[in-house]
Here is the input.
Amino acid sequence: QVQLVQSGGGLVQAGDSLRLSCLVSGLAFDRYAMAWFRQAPGQEREFVASIGWSGVNTQYTDSAKDRFNITRDNFKNTVDLQMSSLTPEDTAVYYCAARSGTYTKTVTAEYPFWGQGTQVSVSS
Here is the structure.
């Protein structure tokens, strides 16, 4: 049974930092590309960042490029998203996702496995 269990998140002030973590089990983690998506109220789920199975290749949406950092630990089966300089526009439910293969994608339909979601709220 594949499980992606997320931790982290919460309520912070603008300018603060926050770290999200996703612990994966039930699959060969080092053969899966991982990603973070987010969904704000009334909006579609959108891509935030992704990382290939080796951890070398990463991709970010423009708004996250200079503020967020995605990393993975293939020994611990975890993928983290370190977020800094948060703004109210970052408020959303954040999801980690997994897809087989080394190549990352930015489309939700490409990811068959998802975490439960964690709320990130940034106050101004």
DSSP finds no helices and eleven strands in the chain. The chain has a mean pLDDT of 96. Residues 78 and 123 are 28 Å apart (CA to CA). The longest strand covers residues 92-100.
